[in-house]
C-alpha cells in the first residue's frame, strides 16, 4: 500500500513531527510505501502537487487540512484519490472546525473510546473511527533496558510537560459574554465534583437544565464553545498533582516550560526539551508521572513511552488502563479525587527500589507487546480494510 503522511505542525515540542516519522517507519517496516509532506521543508503551495494523485491513504495529526479549500470553495482533500485519516490526539471538541467538514472519504483515528462514540454520534459523515494509543520508543542509542542499573537511575520522579497557571484560563473565561461565563463555571463545578465526568457528558447535563436547547441545535459546536471549562480543569489537576509530588521526600524533576511560575519547595526545574529527547529522560528515571488530559477511556502517550524506557508509570487510571494493568503490579495509579495522597505513595514505593524495578519490568512487558508503533500501524491498516 502507498501512504502520504503530512507533517503540518511543529508545535508541542515537535511531537507531531515525531509521530509522523515514527508511523511512517512502522508502515515501511510492514512493507508499505510512504511519502511525506513536511511543512518545515516545503511551501504550502506545494500541496497542489498531490491533486489527482492516488494513495491508499493520507494521514495527518490534529489536522487543519479538512478546512483547506480550492478556488471554487471545494475541499482540497477531495481532489486527492485517497481516504483521509485524521489522527486526533486531543478531545474531538478541539477539532470541531475540521471534523464538521463533509469530505468524501473522511476517517478518524482517536485515542479514547469515548471520543470515538462522540465522533460517531455528532459527525456521522465520517466513514470510520478507530481507537489506538500513541507511544514513544526506546531512547536513541539504546538497544535494550539495562535492568541491572535501575536502582542507580539518577531521577526518582520526573514529570515532562508545560505548566499553565489556572489564573490565565480564568482571565480568558472572564473576557467572554456573561452567559458563557456562567455556563463554563457550572461545567467546571460539575467536573471538579465528579472526576469521572467527561466534558461532553457535563455539557449534555447542562443542556438538559438550560432554557436554550443546546442538544437540538448544535451540541458539538457548543461543546467547542465551552472548551475553556475542559482546559481549566486540566490545568488545575496538573497543578495540584505537582504540588502534591513536591511534598515527597524523594527528588522531583520537572522538564518543561513555565514551571518557575508555580511556587515549589523542593522540585528541580529543567528547560523544555524536544519530544524525542524525553525518551532519554524516561530512561534515566525510576518513576515517570502522567496526568490524563481528561481522558477517561484512553491514555496519554507518556505512559507507554515511560514504560518502554524502563520507568514505572504513575498515572490516573482510565478504563483502557484498568483492562490491561494492575496497580502496584505493573503500573502505579492515583485518583484525582484523592490527589494529595500521591506523595505518601511515592515515598513508600521508592523506599523499596527492588520491588519498584519489578513493577517497571512488568509494565515494560505489556507496553512492548501492546503499545508500539507496529501496533498503531496495524490499527490504521485495519481501519482501511
Structure in a nutshell:
It is built from 14 helices and 12 strands.
Give the H and E element order: EHEEEHEHEEHHHHHEEHEHEHEHHH
> What would the CATH topology of the largest domain be?
Rossmann fold
Structural class: alpha/beta
Q: Major β-sheet, in short?
A: 6 strands, parallel
Structure description:
The strands form 2 sheets. The chain has a 6-stranded parallel β-sheet with strand order 2-1-3-4-5-6, with helices on both faces. The protein is α/β, with parallel strands linked by helices and 385 residues long. It has helices spanning 15-29, 96-99, 113-122, 166-174, 178-193, 199-208, 215-225, 227-245, 278-282, 301-308, 319-324, 342-350, 353-370, 373-383; strands at residues 2-7, 33-38, 57-61, 84-87, 106-110, 128-131, 155-160, 252-255, 268-270, 285-289, 312-315, 332-333. The chain has 2 domains: 2-131, Rossmann fold, CATH 3.40.50; 136-371, Glycogen Phosphorylase B (Rossmann fold, 3-Layer(aba) Sandwich). The chain contains 14 helices and 12 strands.
Which properties best describe this structure?
385 residues; alpha/beta; Rossmann fold; six-stranded parallel sheet
Amino acid at each position: 500500500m502507498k501512504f502520504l503522511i503530512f507533517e503540518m505542525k511543529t508545535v508541542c515540542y515537535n511531537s507531531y513531527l515525531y509521530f509522523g516519522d515514527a508511523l511512517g517507519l512502522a508502515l515501511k517496516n510492514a512493507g508499505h510505501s510512504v511519502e511525506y509532506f513536511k511543512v518545515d521543508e516545503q511551501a504550502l503551495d506545494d500541496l497542489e502537487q498531490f491533486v489527482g494523485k492516488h494513495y491508499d491513504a493520507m494521514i495527518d495529526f490534529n489536522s487543519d487540512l479538512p478546512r483547506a479549500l480550492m478556488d471554487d470553495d471545494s475541499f482540497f482533500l477531495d481532489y486527492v484519490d485517497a481516504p483521509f485519516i485524521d489522527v486526533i490526539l486531543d478531545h474531538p471538541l478541539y477539532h470541531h472546525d475540521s471534523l464538521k467538514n463533509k469530505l468524501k472519504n473522511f476517517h478518524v483515528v482517536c485515542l479514547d473510546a469515548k471520543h470515538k462514540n462522540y465522533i460517531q454520534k455528532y459527525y456521522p459523515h465520517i466513514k470510520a473511527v478507530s481507537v489506538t494509543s500513541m507511544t514513544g520508543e526506546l531512547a536513541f542509542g539504546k538497544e535494550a533496558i539495562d535492568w541491572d542499573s535501575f536502582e542507580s537511575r539518577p531521577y526518582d520522579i520526573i514529570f515532562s510537560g508545560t505548566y499553565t497557571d489556572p489564573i490565565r484560563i480564568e482571565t480568558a473565561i472572564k473576557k467572554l459574554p456573561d452567559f458563557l461565563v456562567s455556563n463554563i463555571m457550572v461545567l467546571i463545578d460539575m467536573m471538579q465534583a465528579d472526576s469521572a465526568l467527561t466534558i461532553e457528558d457535563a455539557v449534555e447535563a447542562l443542556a438538559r437544565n438550560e432554557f436554550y436547547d443546546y442538544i437540538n441545535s448544535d451540541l458539538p459546536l457548543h461543546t467547542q464553545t465551552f472548551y475553556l471549562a475542559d482546559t481549566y480543569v486540566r490545568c488545575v489537576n496538573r497543578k495540584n498533582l505537582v504540588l502534591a509530588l513536591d511534598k515527597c521526600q524523594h527528588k522531583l524533576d520537572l522538564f518543561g516550560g513555565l514551571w518557575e511560575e508555580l511556587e515549589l519547595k523542593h522540585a528541580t526545574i529543567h528547560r523544555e526539551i524536544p519530544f524525542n529527547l524525553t525518551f532519554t529522560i524516561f530512561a534515566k528515571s525510576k518513576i515517570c508521572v502522567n496526568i490524563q488530559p481528561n481522558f477517561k477511556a484512553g491514555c496519554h502517550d507518556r505512559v507507554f513511552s515511560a514504560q518502554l524506557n524502563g520507568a514505572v508509570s504513575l498515572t490516573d487510571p482510565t478504563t483502557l488502563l484498568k483492562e490491561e494493568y494492575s496497580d502496584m503490579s505493573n503500573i502505579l495509579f492515583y485518583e484525582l479525587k484523592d490527589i494529595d495522597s500521591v506523595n505518601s505513595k511515592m515515598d513508600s514505593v521508592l523506599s523499596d527500589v527492588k520491588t519498584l524495578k519489578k513493577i517497571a519490568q512488568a509494565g515494560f512487558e505489556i507496553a512492548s507487546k501492546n503499545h508500539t508503533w507496529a501496533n498503531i500501524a496495524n490499527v490504521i491498516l485495519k481501519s482501511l480494510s
